[in-house]
Design brief:
globular; mainly alpha; 11 helices
Length: 213
């Protein structure tokens, strides 16, 4: 429970935690951010790490000169692309056996099924769209690997989606993250970035399963 509360506090107040980290450890913040984005996108058991909100706050920090905008975008784009490649490789290795796995602490079967339903409906574009959807973002490349999508085709969608996700959200944070109204309501904005895309995923998965039934 303590770990969960700590994680929620970090996600909702990521701006304050990152600012303290930058002031304390300086350039090591780039390594921390690379690791968070890589693990969130590259390790199928870590779908709960902050993604969209983290990129937005990092963009805001770049906007006030605490971090380098071009270096941040380049590093986090590399982390996002490599993370997806890692996740895809894991999916290809385990293949169809995944469908027989049971829900556990290390495997969220419901999230996997939602990602699979989304993939079945939209195909490769899922890799791009999933970048902006918590949980689905972690499972989409894994599902693509399980489905044996060609590596070259997956890489095309991976790079496109990663560029739009990292470049887009960091840039929005860079220009709008330090507006007083945005800073005042940042916790609500973060909740919206988590819940609204997640709701679309749930509705899409429910509709796909209803149609299949």
């Amino acid at each position: 429970m303590d770990i969960l509360l700590t994680l929620i506090d970090f996600i909702l107040h990521v701006d304050k935690h990152l600012e303290v980290f930058v002031q304390t450890y300086g350039a090591w913040v780039y390594a921390l951010l690379f690791l968070i984005i890589f693990v969130e996108t590259g390790v199928v058991v870590m779908p709960f790490l902050p993604g969209d909100s983290l990129l937005f706050v990092v963009g805001a920090m770049c906007g006030v000169g605490l971090m380098s905008y071009p270096l941040t975008v380049a590093l986090l784009l590399a982390a996002a692309i490599l993370g997806n490649q890692s996740n895809y490789t894991i999916g290809r290795y385990f293949g169809p056996k995944v469908f027989g796995w049971e829900d556990s602490r290390w495997f969220n079967k419901q999230a996997f099924n939602q990602a699979h339903a989304f993939y079945e409906k939209y195909g490769g574009i899922t890799i791009v769209a999933a970048r902006f959807m918590p949980f689905l973002r972690t499972f989409a490349p894994f599902v693509a690997g399980v489905a044996q999508m060609k590596r070259s085709r997956f890489t095309l969608f991976d790079v496109l989606g990663g560029t739009l996700w990292v470049g887009g959200i960091v840039t929005v944070g860079y220009f709008f993250g330090n507006i007083p109204w945005v800073k005042l309501h940042l916790d609500k904005i973060i909740w919206a970035m988590i819940l609204v895309p997640g709701l679309f995923v749930l509705v899409g998965a429910w509709r796909s399963r209803a149609k299949a039934a």
